[in-house]
Amino acid sequence: MSSVPASEGQKMRDLIQYISEALVDRSEEVRVNVIEGENSIILELKVAGDDVGKVIGKGGQTAKALRKILSASATKLRKKALLQIVE
């Protein structure tokens, strides 16, 4: 099912995890799950309930920036990348 080497998905996961941990108060609760498909990579970001606002940002600006960075990283792989923030 997955044509992307595990190391590529892992690099994207590590990138989002690193940035997210820097944004939140409870960094030990940051979890990133990677779901890889043929043409896309979905990253599910889970943070503590009181930190959700910090990764979304005012008007969604922080989440938008995270998605931009992820998209730029995925372009190298010729894939679509999607970041979902889940509680």
Summarize the structure.
The chain is α+β, with helices and mostly antiparallel strands and 87 residues long. It has helices at residues 6-23, 52-56, 61-75; strands spanning 31-36, 40-46, 80-86.
What is the strand and helix layout of this fold?
Layout: H1 6-23, E1 31-36, E2 40-46, H2 52-56, H3 61-75, E3 80-86
Parallel strand pairs: 2-3
Antiparallel strand pairs: 1-2
Helix pairs in contact: 1-3
Overview of this protein structure:
The chain has 87 residues and is an alpha+beta fold. The protein has a domain of 56 residues: 2-Layer Sandwich (GMP Synthetase, Chain A, domain 3). The radius of gyration is 13 Å and the shape is globular. The mean pLDDT is 89.
